Amino acid sequence: MLSGKKTEMSDHSFYALRDMIYERSGIFFPDQKKYILENRLLRRIEEGGFNDFEKYIDFLRFDSLRDREFSTLFDIVTTNETSFFRDMNQLEVFESFVLPQIVKEVEKAGYKKLRIWSAPCSTGEEPYTLAMLLLSKFPGIQGAGWDIEIHGSDISECVLNSARRGEYNDYSMRNVPPLYLDRYFTKNGNGKYGVKPEVKGIVRLSNINLFDNLRLRMFRGMNIVFCRNVLIYFDEAAKKRVIANIYDCLLPGGYLFIGHAESLFNISRAFKLVNINNILLYQK
Ligand SMILES: C[S@@+](CC[C@H](N)C(=O)[O-])C[C@H]1O[C@@H](n2cnc3c(N)ncnc32)[C@H](O)[C@@H]1O
Prior knowledge:
By secondary structure, the protein is of the alpha/beta class. About 40% of the residues lie in helices and about 20% in strands. A 7-stranded mixed sheet has the order 6-2-1-7-8-10-9. Strand 4 and strand 5 form a beta hairpin. Helix 5 crosses helix 6. The longest helix is centred in the middle third of the chain and has 21 residues, at about 90-110. It starts with 10 loop residues before the first helix and ends with a strand. The structure holds S-adenosylmethionine.
């Protein structure tokens, strides 16, 4: 156990840590969330043998292994709540309106290439859901010469490893409609549900920081982007930067879904706001 004094995070340490986290990721801890950062980091400081917050800050500033520690830090400070078929109203618009329109337009343009991006994807439920919706809407699409990639990216390596395993417990499966459960999952020996290879095969997972302007260039050429339930962790400047990056990644005419409680008001005027069945989405 750490001694009493060392377990306290001074305001000075709090500001130093939150600045470092913010500068690298856009994740912003306002003053009233100091206790969350403190609680989450206490165990890391103990486990990593850092002794106290000051030593931890020094390590993050100067040590040659600091990039690795930042990766661990992002595992700790991120909130990774997600689920299969999250916000079905949005997904219905994706399946019934956006997908058919994009598929038709792409075909008309004379090529069969489809790129969808779940940014961020957490433990994988979102990109796998998008893949299942696509495959059930267009059953023959994989054998019909289409080049399909559904990307899932996240800043946390820990959640990406879960996504790569593609195995989920009963609780994670709570919103999966029976039809999709039958078609796209297998019950594994360990009692968990595994995503079938035909779904996994079109999902590509990678560690991408949405604040990393340079690496995001790899994601240019997207038809549809889901950037749901992450903007809430950013301040206004960070939201603007991330949304501008995503705008650059979308093809003209491409669509952006954000969380149903999120908005681009004061963040970007670059998109056309589209209302379909009272679901708001953004078109480039
Ligand atoms: C609440 S989850 C949302 C997952 C999914 N989009 C959904 O709506 O269910 C938020 C995710 O954002 C990731 N995240 C936070 N900041 C990020 C950043 N700068 N770059 C990439 N991912 C980030 C976290 O690791 C976390 O997994």
